[in-house]
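Quick illustration, no need to memorize.
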Amino acid sequence: MLVYVPAVVGLGFIFSMLYKQSAVLSALAAVTIALVIAYGSTLGDLDIFLSTLRATWGASALFLVVPPLTVAVVKHLRSNNRWRGP
């Protein structure tokens, strides 16, 4: 699982440069579509799909959460509307 983290964070940085408007939603949609395609061969049989999802849940959750989160953090850090304090 730790091996996936740099690749997933890098994917988030790529998405942040690729998408300009609604970047977080676009990143979430792109990753969701990629996971549906990856699990596409198992979607016909529910038992096989659930067992595959159960076996790869950690990596799937990592790919669903981290790229949109990385995009949100990068967009927040690049924004000009930061709170400046008193």
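The mean pLDDT is 85.
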